[in-house]
Amino acid sequence: MKKILVxxxxxxxxxxxxxxxxxxxYDTYEASNGEEAVEVYExxxxxxxVAVLDIMMPGSMDGLAVCRYLREKxxxxxxxxxxxxxxxxxxxxxxxxxxxxxxxxxxxxxxxxARVDAVYRRVALAQVRTENDFREEIxxxxxxxxxxSRTLLKRGSPIELTQVEFQIMEYFFSNPGAALDRTDIxxxxxxxxxxxxxxxxxxxxxxxRMKIEDEPSNPRHIITVWGLGYKWEA
Length: 234
Fold this sequence. Notes:
single chain, alpha/beta, four-stranded antiparallel β-sheet, 8 helices, 12 strands
């Protein structure tokens, strides 16, 4: 069963989200604040596939704090932030902390389910490859990308990646030296029916540069192609 955690302090919104996700076939768990969300995650012993987190929640843990906690616990869990239109910096902060996507309120049921489905497919693909002992590796210079364990090594040292980051790196490694349009990256990683904005690509590129580049401000591997997107140089 596809398991999803919904953490939202406004009951009406939480019930709206839960009803639509259940109709889409998800086994849902509810939390009204950050502390409760963490309790649910721990109680399920890491079996949650996707977490939908409202950024603004009462108590000592808001959505960003829960996002950080979950990402530290798991590189594979899918994380979607619920934000208001005025929370532009919070959107970026969530993505920098490891969220896979965000949905801006108000949103339609179809948009929400489409975004959750896209994140879940990514999580499920990683699980299938692991269970089937998928061993293929892609080597590029000092880097080795393992498609089974969903890991990246740089000069033999592991680099922790989220599922989104891994998919971007897999796309880069499969197209070495090619200039990849932001729209192409967006469609490849987030899906053809993705509703969101291209800037989510830029934020994830920023995260990747911080992880893999010796000098993130002067990147040698993930190169900006002005007016288009990015390319990978080993």
